[in-house]
Design a protein that fits this description.
alpha/beta, six-stranded mixed beta sheet, globular, binds guanosine-5'-diphosphate
Length: 456
């Protein structure tokens, strides 16, 4: 490395950074209008104004990457939803519960100008039960005169209120310091970042009515064991152990699949929050698509969520029993144009109704997990890169030819590579390298991260 103009420390630093495991997750919870979305925007430094006047807006995403004091983490935004038929307390409880479950730490937002409400008290109960570290954000303290309102929130009994103005940024830095302190050094391994032992964790996801619960019932038969069924609680069973192909798998959040939630509004939002929480906890996402229906933006969002979370992915096209020849023709075109971002994922064409190709599901999952865990030895990677760069050099720009000098795999689950280069490597060339890496080493069923370091 030294001859190539990178010093060792620089190389090691880059490898460590690229190889980071799963990021810790911070959930922002609280009742409507306390300023959760405003706070999330501030934390992630989002420029566009996404705080909507209209409540109940469905967001594309609920999980964002953020950084504070050099530490990266994910933020789960539970703003942007609406009270529904369940009543406000139940809605707040439901959305908070999903978010808290997936989180390593929680920011509980209270409107200090309003003070403690019954709904706030209900959230406190959930927080106590979940035993996650909590940072109390006393929001809307826009100036010194509001500090007294913040102090009143000691009465919640969950520790120090941090006076914050999400709108103006006042106090957010101190609060984020407290959040970082509350975060465990490594993300929770209980439900799991990737890398935990025990049964492999599967999230079965897809938009409503694609056949998730039908598929689950088909594969589970009588053979299931409910985990997380805490004695003496009324809590829904969340995860189930299911034996498939002689192997025990843990299906994440099956309660969310089995129990049909009837909500007048905000149902899509709940669904996406629940999906995001399940994906965070899983190693592999089985994404179910209704093959009888046109591939929709919602399908694409779910796929994007799983790709961005860096999970192994299997694409399952359901309701195959209903397809005629014409639909099959158009389906293939749609897959090509709409789902190109997961062209590398193993695919099964199934019918939860007839049981068609159920036996192909497990091999597909195993293939995806194998790709996800692939490690390419540095020597092999570099001989491959050397040949590639010699045969297909980067285009000359401004009289110079940027070159990939060497590379290494910094991590797995999913595979992460760092390439060291003599100049700026264009996006097109990066994609070309990813394509060739896949051709050479497989990586079936897994996203692949490539970062490039340029020599000064
Ligand atoms: P959410 O429903 O909890 O996500 O709340 P929003 O982020 O949508 O905020 C609700 C309202 O409170 C909006 O009109 C915000 O502009 C306002 N708001 C949020 N944070 C602050 C703050 O720190 N100070 C003041 N004065 N208003 C705020
Ligand atoms: P979920 O909302 O994703 O859990 O979807 P469900 O499992 O509730 O299925 C939605 C509807 O599609 C139900 O009426 C199912 O009977 C039907 N369905 C599910 N899988 C299949 C399938 O493979 N073939 C056919 N023809 N219908 C299916």
């Amino acid at each position: 490395a030294a001859e190539e103009g990178f010093d060792l420390e620089e190389v090691e630093g880059a490898i460590e950074e690229a190889g980071h495991g799963p990021l810790p997750v911070v959930a922002v919870v609280g009742r409507p209008n306390v300023g959760k979305s405003t706070l999330v925007n501030r934390i992630i430094g989002r420029r566009e104004a996404v705080v909507e006047d209209k409540p109940g807006v469905t967001r594309d995403r609920v999980t964002y990457e953020a950084e504070w004091a050099g530490r990266r983490f994910k933020v789960v935004d539970t703003g942007g939803w609406e009270q529904d038929v369940l009543g406000i307390d139940a809605s707040v409880a439901a959305q908070s519960e999903y978010a808290i479950e997936a989180a390593d730490a929680v920011i509980f937002v209270v409107d200090a100008t309003v003070g403690v409400t019954d709904t706030d008290a209900a959230v406190v109960k959930l927080l106590r039960k979940a035993k996650k570290p909590v940072v109390l954000c006393a929001n809307k303290v826009d100036g010194p005169s509001g500090e007294a309102d913040a102090l009143a929130l000691w009465s919640l009994g969950i520790g120090e209120p941090h006076p914050v103005s999400s709108l103006h940024g006042r106090g957010t830095g101190d609060m984020l310091d407290a959040v970082l302190e509350a975060l465990p050094d490594a993300p929770q391994q209980l439900f799991g970042g990737p890398g935990v032992g025990g049964p492999r964790r599967i999230a079965l996801i897809g938009r409503p009515n694609v056949g998730k619960s039908s598929l689950l019932n088909k594969v589970a038969k009588e053979d299931r064991v409910v985990v997380n069924e805490l004695a003496g609680t009324t809590r829904d069973p969340v995860d189930e152990l299911i034996n498939l192909g002689g192997v025990t798998w843990k299906f994440i959040d099956t309660a969310g699949i089995r129990k049909k939630v009837h909500l007048q509004s905000g149902a899509d939002y709940y669904a996406s929050l629940r999906t995001a929480a399940a994906v965070e906890k899983a190693e592999v996402a089985v994404i179910l698509i209704d093959a009888a229906d046109s591939i929709s933006v919602q399908d694409q969002r779910i796929v994007t969520m799983a790709v961005e979370a860096g999970r192994a992915i299997v694409m399952a096209y359901n309701k195959w029993d209903t397809l005629d020849e014409e639909r099959r023709y158009y389906l293939e075109r749609e897959i090509e144009t709409e789902l190109g971002q997961v062209a590398w994922a193993p695919r099964v064409n199934v019918s939860a109704r007839t049981g068609r190709h159920m036996e192909k599901l497990v091999p597909a999952i195993e293939t995806a997990l194998a790709g996800w865990e692939t490690r390419v030895p540095t020597g092999r990677l570099n001989s491959f890169l050397g040949e590639l760069v010699a045969a297909h050099p980067h285009p000359v720009r401004g009289g110079k030819q940027p070159r990939i000098l060497f590379g290494t795999q910094a991590g797995t689950k999913p595979p992460r590579f760092v390439l060291f280069a003599s100049g700026f490597i264009e996006a097109g060339y990066r994609r070309f390298i990813e394509r060739r890496l896949r051709e050479e080493f497989g990586f079936e069923g897994t996203p692949v991260h490539i970062s490039v370091r340029v020599r000064e």
